[in-house]
Amino acid sequence: MRPQTARKQPAPNNTTEFGPWLAQASILAVDDELGMRNFLERTLGPRCKHIATAADTEEAARILDEHHFDVLILDNIMPGKNGVEWLSEQRAVGFFGDVILITAYADLETAIQALRAGAADFVLKPFRSNQMLNAIARCLDRGRLQRENYVLRYELKSSSDQRLSDKLIGESEAIRRVRDDIARVAPLPTSVLITGESGSGKEVAARSVHALSDRNDKPFVPVNCAAIPADMIESELFGHVKGAFTGAQASRDGLFMHAQGGTLFLDEIGELPTPMQSKLLRVLEDRRVRPVGAEREIPVDLRLLFATNADLGEHVESGRFRADLYFRINVMQIDLPPLRDRRDDVHELATLFMHQLSQQFGTPAVPISAEERALLERYDWPGNVRELRNLVERTLILGRLPDEFGRDISMAAGPEESLADIERRHILAVLREVNGNRAEAARRLGVSRKTIDRKCARWNI
Length: 461
Ligand SMILES: Nc1ncnc2c1ncn2[C@@H]1O[C@H](COP(=O)(O)OP(=O)(O)OP(=O)(O)O)[C@@H](O)[C@H]1O
Ligand SMILES: [Mg+2]
Prior knowledge:
5-stranded parallel β-sheet; Rossmann fold; binds adenosine-5'-triphosphate; binds magnesium ion; 12 strands; disordered N terminus; 46% helix
């Protein structure tokens, strides 16, 4: 697997003096002068991912309709419409990309207008290639930062797990199969539906798909469909233009735009309100989104991943979920098995979490004895891996397995247990209840202190 890319996007290898993002950027240059278009193509072409040029605003509009660009370089003075005017119009109908204006006149007025119309920067003609490259690098840096901040803030609001990795741990047959499927599907553009009980690792699996895809240096944007109020969800996902509704004082990008080039993970997809289901279906078919109140649609270039812990097939039958959308997103399904069906993984996960959390808290790891390991492996884990992680966290704080854990296990005795097992489990539970006081445990159990000592010695307690 590749190095973890969870929160911080790694810099691509070919970092240049113009920053790490230039090589990944797609740029559209609009200028009526052939000489300028050629110059920009020559300078930028070898350094960025993709460059396109247009000779006027009409051609530019056509190209923008079809493809997503990270940066638009726009000449201000062109026959017909000038750049600033055109940009204002485009902003009003829902164009959100980063714009650098080229202007031949050193007048402040144009620059101010440009910035008001939503340009990120301007470059005065004549300019050297380095000036343009620096302007682009600044613009990409700022855009990246804004997006990261937004996504981070959004994640903080919606996610209860502090830091999610993109690696599924475990050597059980079941989890290996999941990892194989992920490795197979990751490089393809295919949508994936990830299913599984709560806490079984669906989001980790989604991050893993992203990390193993060629989009791994672009954003991974997780969205919990159940956490956004129904009347907000369209504008959260698709953005809105200024004045689209009361309170929409400025245009705002939606999460689809923040995920441009990368991966959008729609979690709890079964909770998506029906009107949004039709909108999502259209996005999947046309790869375009229309911000609320916007006249134009914006092409989006992203991978879509979905997750649910509900039975979507049942939702379809009961009419809660559109059948056509279900077929569209259910191209490839990855099912995370519950932890009780892969008990082999329990110990490895517990050890790993103990290690990670003890480092994070700066406290020494609490050793897990052979008996405790057996207890952990016998337990049914209704909350799956998340429950295990929480248990390890509590164990670290208490310095021992929480008392109630032993009790839960005692009640869930398996039929195949030997009498000796039951005895050991029972004594352990009592010991935990009395905080390890052997004299007290002996009294409660009605045996001698010596018996307890002997048994504990045999069990390595
Ligand atoms: N195989 C795994 N390896 C390492 N960590 C895991 C694994 N599976 C789950 N986790 C951890 O368990 C917790 C829950 O995982 P995750 O958020 O992916 O579950 P989920 O299936 O999305 O749950 P929910 O349905 O409640 O959203 C996280 O802390 C995650 O890091
Ligand atoms: Mg989740």
